[in-house]
Amino acid sequence: MGDYHHHGARAVLPPDVQTVAETVPGYETYTWNALFAPAGTPADVVARLNLAANKALADPGVSKRMAEFSAVVVGSTPEQLGAHVKAQIAKWTPVVRDAKIELE
């Protein structure tokens, strides 16, 4: 329904601390979190949950607390989250396959 750590955003760090991406050209990795509803959840329920989640993420207290964890708060739509998940699968599938990583 929405995520709070957005691709391309720099985590909140002291100004004198460089990220890996700022020192290693082409490096990109980050964590992200999102809210998901079970498959088959009615669209109107997903819309209400998404609205509530984005409203909570817009709260200054939530943003401040998340910044303490270096999280960048970004609300999104279910469609944007779906596109993000598909992009992540496309990005990491070859990495996992080439590294011969097996899931148990």
Overview of the molecule:
With 104 residues, the protein is mainly alpha-helical. The longest helix is centred in the C-terminal third of the chain and has 21 residues, at 78-98. It has four helices and two strands; from the N terminus they run βαβααα.
Number of E strands? 2
Radius of gyration: 16 Å
Structural class: mainly alpha
Topology order in helix (H) and strand (E) letters? EHEHHH
* Estimated helix fraction: 40-55%
* Poorly predicted parts: 2-7
Strand order of the largest sheet: 1-2
N-end to C-end Cα span: 28 Å
Mean pLDDT across residues:
84
- Our count of helices gives 4
Major sheet: 2 strands, antiparallel
Give the count of structural domains: 1
What portion of residues belong to β-strands? under 5%
Oligomer: single chain
Overall geometry comes to: flat
Brief rundown of the structure:
The protein has helices at 20-23, 43-58, 60-67, 78-98; strands at 2-3, 34-35.
Question: What attributes characterize this protein structure?
Answer:
two-stranded antiparallel ribbon, mainly alpha, 47% helix, single chain, plasmid, BUG, 104 residues, Bug_dom1, 4 helices
Topology:
Layout lengths: L1 E2 L16 H4 L10 E2 L7 H16 L1 H8 L10 H21 L6
Antiparallel strand pairs: 1-2
